[in-house]
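Review session, final week

We close the course with one last complete record, chosen because it touches almost every idea we covered. It is DUF4287 domain-containing protein, a protein from Goekera deserti with 69 residues. Go through it on your own first, then we will talk.
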Amino acid sequence: MTDAPKGSAYFPAIEARYGKPIAHWQELLQAHRAEQPEQKFMQQVAWLKSEHGLGHGHATALVSATPAG
């Protein structure tokens, strides 16, 4: 059995809709945070939406469930 990421109930829908595992999105977001440490929560949400085409709810779920660093 694989270790499913703990977090949002949105995670299965995010994986199904965008075709990538949650770990992919979390790694991408952590790398973005390292490059843009001054960005606030909603700026990170906006980045996922504009650069990667995520919906608002999905982006919000990922930002809130992704640990820093």
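Two points worth writing down before the exam:
The chain has a mean pLDDT of 92.
The chain has one domain: 11-65.
Good luck, everyone.
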